[in-house]
Amino acid sequence: MDLKNNGFYKPLYKIKYILTFIVLSSFMTLLFTGCTSETENNILMSQIVPASATIDTLLSITESESLFSAEDKEIGYDDTETSAINLNGDKVFSDSENVEVDGAVATIKSAGTYIVTGNLENGRIIVDAGSDEDIRLVLDGVNILNNTTSAIQIENANKVYITLAENTENKLSNNFYFSDNDGANGVIYSKSDITINGRGTLNVYASEGNGIVSEKNAVITGGTIYISSDKYGIAASDSVRISSSMMSIESDDKGIYSYNEENDSLGFIYISDGMFAISSSGNAIDARSILLIDGGAFNISAVSSASSTENEKNGCGLIAGEEVSVSSGEFTFNTSDDAVYSKSNVSITGGSFTITSDSNGIYGENTVVIGEANIAIEKSYIGVQGHTVFVQDASLNITSDDDGINAAGGNDGSGLRETSSNSNATSGIGIFSGFISINASGDGIDAKGEVSVSDGTIMISTADNEEDMVIDYSDDLYITGGTILGTGNLSGEKNFSETEQQIITLNLDSQPQNTFIEILDQSGNLIFSDIAEQPFSNIIVSSSLLQKGYTYTLKIGSYATTITI
């Protein structure tokens, strides 16, 4: 690879909900000068660009008016223009000629607003109206149990709005066995678009099957929703769109799922604001195409389900087939598989993350972009990996059982597997600003390709052995700015001599974990310091603050030495 300029391309989609994506829109070129003439200005540029279908999808779904309509958020209605549906034991009563009643089953045949109250045993509400008609169901203290099928079943309508009346508690549940081929396979099941809103509470219990299912779009814009399901919590074919809701999901499979496999513009999930607690035996939030999050507080626990296959991603926190894009939010993950995974690109351009994972922290099979986020990966196999990884203006703290940051499997091939989409593309790691702290049992930074550092502060602690390196790479290393302090055993370390700024290496007797390290200028002023998180016998320092011809003092625990560059 010939990298001649240091650069970073950022996700530049700007929409009303302030989302960002990885697109080839422009480059932000960073030019640097160094202390050698051999290395010219260089650029680390990804060749991974989303397919045109993906770009079209992003553009089409991120206009605010197409995500949520005014009606999606409307919870008011005219009391004089409503009909009543009263539930009483094993019977249903209604004052509307547009409601057909058969024992414990009420079928709504025409557009309108219907106020539903009472308790119903082994009954249900069916909507079977015209394809151009909208229905609003206002749940005003409802408890429906069905032993054979869905509690609310929508066979036909243009759209159905389920409004949770303010300060009410509503409960929908089933108690029946279903197969994947069953039609009405959710406590709430809809063949049409469905919206849930309001200021009340909805409890959904699926002892078998799914909680809420839509064969089209599922939209939630309010309410407090509790779901306990034997399979999926919320599932929709075309999309799941959630805004400003409080939600708790316990599922024995996926928590929130959008699954359309026939149309590239569908199968997406969008979440903006709200509070979400998801515990799943499977992936917590899973989009077949694109997963977009623009705010909210998330507490996610995901474990692999017993039915998962060996090569299936199962037990992930956030997962998408094409793109994962997070622009803000607060996230806590505890996962058996990757906390954040995409079969293509991952873009995290804001938010706060605390990650504990038995697998990888953040994994995108193509490009991973991390910018202006605060990320603490407290446990992982590999902290961050992608075919190409970019970091800018982020705070990134990584603890890993293998590499801290890995590109394309690393120079030793221990990480990312090659795929048909990335095997011929430029790979590498670009760090352009921010703060990175890595405590790795493998390599600190490992790239099958090039590593470029142009600014920022990077502190790396690796194991004190000959196999693991502070920075490992297969092609070239460019250090043109910033500060790097690495500890470990440098006997197998690459040649850093061609980087553009000054480098100090120091061999020592073995030093214990938690040794304090300081670097002082010739006037005794502190330049920077760190605490080694593992035992070490070597130190490597590279910094734009180090100048040729000057003398510096290195303090390592009780040991001190002076070095003139």
Outline of the structure:
Helix content is 3%, strand content 52%.
Give the total of beta strands. Answer: 48
Q: How are the strands ordered across the major sheet?
A: 9-11-14-17-20-18-15-12
Largest sheet, strands/sense/barrel: 8 strands, parallel, barrel
Terminal residue distance: 31 Å
Helix content: under 10%
Any overview of this molecule?
By secondary structure, this protein is mainly β. The chain contains 3 helices and 48 strands. The radius of gyration is 28 Å and the shape is elongated. It starts with 5 loop residues before the first strand and ends with a strand. The protein has a domain at 77-321. Helix content is 3%, strand content 52%. An 8-stranded parallel beta barrel has the order 9-11-14-17-20-18-15-12. It has a 4-stranded antiparallel β-sheet with strand order 45-44-47-48, with no helix packed on it. It has a two-stranded antiparallel ribbon with strand order 1-2. Strand 47 (551-556) and strand 48 (559-564) form a beta hairpin.
Name some characteristics of this structure.
single chain; 565 residues; mainly beta; 3% helix; 52% strand; disordered N terminus
Give the topology, please.
Layout: E1 6-8, E2 28-30, H1 52-61, H2 64-67, H3 70-73, E3 82-89, E4 91-94, E5 99-102, E6 105-108, E7 112-121, E8 124-128, E9 134-146, E10 152-156, E11 159-164, E12 169-174, E13 186-190, E14 193-198, E15 201-206, E16 210-214, E17 217-220, E18 224-229, E19 234-236, E20 239-251, E21 256-258, E22 268-281, E23 285-287, E24 290-303, E25 318-320, E26 323-335, E27 340-342, E28 345-348, E29 352-357, E30 362-371, E31 374-379, E32 384-392, E33 394-400, E34 405-407, E35 428-431, E36 434-440, E37 445-447, E38 450-453, E39 457-462, E40 471-473, E41 477-479, E42 483-488, E43 503-511, E44 516-520, E45 526-531, E46 536-543, E47 551-556, E48 559-564
Parallel strand pairs: 3-7, 6-8, 7-9, 8-10, 9-11, 9-12, 10-13, 11-14, 12-15, 13-16, 14-17, 15-18, 16-19, 17-20, 18-20, 19-21, 20-22, 21-23, 22-24, 23-25, 24-26, 25-27, 26-28, 26-29, 27-30, 28-30, 29-31, 30-32, 31-33, 32-34, 32-35, 33-36, 34-37, 35-38, 36-39, 37-40, 38-41, 39-42
Antiparallel strand pairs: 1-2, 3-4, 5-6, 42-46, 43-46, 44-45, 44-47, 47-48
